[in-house]
Amino acid sequence: MKIFKRLLGFLAAAAVAVSSAAGAAGEIEKDDEIYAMLEAMPVAGLAVIECGSGKMLYEKAATEQMPMGHLAKLMTLLFAAESLENGGAKIDDLITVSDNAGSKGGISVWLERGEKISFEEALKAVTVSNANDACTALAEYLSGSEESFVEQANSRCMELGLKATHFSDCCGLEENTVSNAAEIALISAELVRHELLTPFVTCWMDQVREGKAQLVNRNRLVRTYKGIRGLKECYNDGTGECAAAAAERGGMTVAVVALGCDTQDSCTQICKKMLDLSFEHFSVFRPIADEEWTAPIPVAGGVRDTVRLTADELRPIVVSKGSTAKAEIEFKKTEVLQAPVKKGTVVGTVVCRSNDEVLYSLSIRAAEDVEKMNFRCGFLKLVYNLLSF
Questions:
Q1: Is 256 helix (H, G, I), strand (E, B) or coil?
Q2: Which letter, b or e, does each residue of 351-388 get, where b requires 16 or more Cβ atoms within 10 Å of its Cβ?
């Protein structure tokens, strides 16, 4: 009987091992399949990020620098959103078209020098139609001049840690207005935080200048993709077909940037495929702290018997779907501290793992100072305890 039980145990363990190996092999095969698919895609640079964390989900030549083209207008839109939110500009403000704005070539809504256009209409012309004249008028209104806008845009790039991105103009007409897929994705992530822009960047058709200029969005996903948040699709001679597309599902917002696609159709399909893959394979996990982590712990030889604790902030994280079901939490905390205790002293750690992947980790710290007991404090404490009886 004992031999039979051992045999059953061995077979069960073997079955688990085979199952685990098969699962791991399946994950490797899936990763290899996606890698091969990315390599085969007709795109010069690709970046897919989760907007809340900036985590890169998929990439292909994401750091290759190239001309931005109309995607440079995302920075103008970011400045416009911030100005509307902080009261610097109002949606019905009137913008006077300068000689510089009125002379811009390429895509335009045919603004004339000296003409007045509302902030709202200029915004529509940029978001829906990629109009260079409207973008310049908007940038000049926000920054005083296109030169000042360029300076502010490059300063913002430094603030955001964008090292490959450089602006020489506001429209992306200059070859020296350059970036890469990864950094444009980060600009996109900043932009989608401003929900007031959503109706503009998801608009399919509109008109401005009393119907003199009809606007049609090149981004086909604004009509067809569930949860779409914009942003922009365009073509430029230096890079080819490009797009920045963002969508939100299940509390997760994903931005895809595709640069240098061979056709508009393939650009649209690449963005759609990468959004689909992201929502299929990833989700946002919001960890919850356990009260035990920050329960006070004893202090030996201190003016107080215990010390209060605090934990590092738990932020939402992006995880592979299903990984949290296999997650294990390792919690360690000092049982007794010796006085003196300094505020901020690390007294414990929490690490959450799924297989070999660390999902999150945090430190447990002393929330206050606890001084070492001296004769005077000890005497007063003794008197207090005697009087308490």
A1: strand
A2: ebbbeeeebbebebbbeebbeebeeeeeeeeeeeeeee
Q: Are strands 297-300 and 306-307 parallel, antiparallel or unpaired?
A: antiparallel
Beta carbons of 58 and 172 less than 8 angstroms apart? no
Q: How confident is the model at residue 20 (pLDDT cuts 50, 70, 90)?
A: very low
DSSP state of 225: S
Tokens representing residue 123 in the block: 């915004």
Q: How many CB atoms lie within 10 A of CB 196?
A: 11
Q: Which tens digits make up the pLDDT trace of 118-153? A: 999 999 999 999 999 999 999 999 999 999 999 999
Q: State the DSSP code for 238.
A: T
Residue 374 binned pLDDT confidence (cut-offs 50, 70, 90): low
Residue partners of 331: CB distance under 8 A and separation at least 6: 290, 292, 293, 348, 349, 350
Q: What is the CA radius of gyration of the chain?
A: 29
Length of the chain: 389
And the tokens for 54? 């900036």
Q: Please identify which residue in the block is written with the tokens 């929490």.
A: 350
pTM here is 0.82
> Exposed/middle/buried for 92, CB within 10 Å: 0-12, 13-18, 19+?
exposed
Cβ atoms of 255 and 246 closer than 8 Å: yes
Domains of the chain, CATH where assigned? 44-283 (3.40.710.10), 291-388 (2.60.410.10)
